[in-house]
Amino acid sequence: MSRFEGRAALVTGAGRGIGAATAMELAKGGCALALNDVDADRLNESAAALRAQGVKVTTHLGSVMESDFIDRFVAEATDEHGKIDLLANNAGGGPPMTPWAEFAKSEFAHFRAIFEMNFFTQAMLLHALLPGMIERGYGKVVCVSSISAVLGQESGSAYASGKLALHALVSSVSKEVARFGVNVNAVVLGNPPHPSRTPDRQAYLDKMSHFDRVGRLEEFGKAIAFLLSDDASYISGAAIPVDGGLIAPRLNE
Questions:
Q1: Dihedral, CA of residue 144, residue 146, residue 147 and residue 149, to nearest 10
Q2: Which of 72, 173, 198, 242 has the fewest beta carbons under 10 Å from its own?
Q3: pLDDT at residue 253 is higher than 60
């Protein structure tokens, strides 16, 4: 029996990057998939690659920043797959880094929007999906966070704050749902490949990594898939670094 045979997963931000890599690891294990992204071309391309693995894939175009869309997305995905067992809560991000001195001169709505993108989107998906998981007595959730939540991020305070709030959410909710057979964890990612990162910034991050390189997308996808599997049945409420050692400083240099 395949690792995820008989399971159905909802994956946000699945059109590229970590979301697409996670979906691929789930598909290789026989998992049915409900994919979300805001970009139709990316979403369809990702779905085609996943269907080649022989699993059922549905696509749901829209923004998880919008609560009405989340309700519709979850309802449609549940109807099409019969249930949703797993949630890869990946969508998030933000604009290019902005120094606080400049940020503080802008409307506070700018800060709020980035915070909401990285916290409320994931909280709303938990709100929508956990009741069904509790009712069925099974569910696994992984929220995607960042080392910025632990270390802070110069010129990225709104992003880092939203990600740190996720850790409190995961820790709190996991305590309430464990007795219903539901695991809730976070992965704290560091140095994934990113198309907008400048060469200087990438070189800096590579030097900080214990492995002197950028993380590979499949490495992040495999870590998330592990936490969504029954192999991680006794792990819950954790925020697990997958960062090449970035959180652990190299003090001898």
A1: -100
A2: 198
A3: no
Catalytically active residues are 159
Neighbour-count burial of 49, counting CB atoms closer than 10 A to its CB (0-12 exposed, 13-18 middle, 19+ buried): middle
Q: Quick check: 96 pLDDT over 70?
A: no
For residue 187 the two structure tokens come to 């992965």
Among 51-60, 134-143, 188-197, 212-221, whose mean pLDDT is lowest?
188-197
- pLDDT for 137 equals 98
Set out the domains of the chain in order of their start, with CATH numbers: 8-239 (3.40.50.720)
Closest CA to 143 of 121, 128, 161, 160: 121
d(CA 152, CA 129): 30
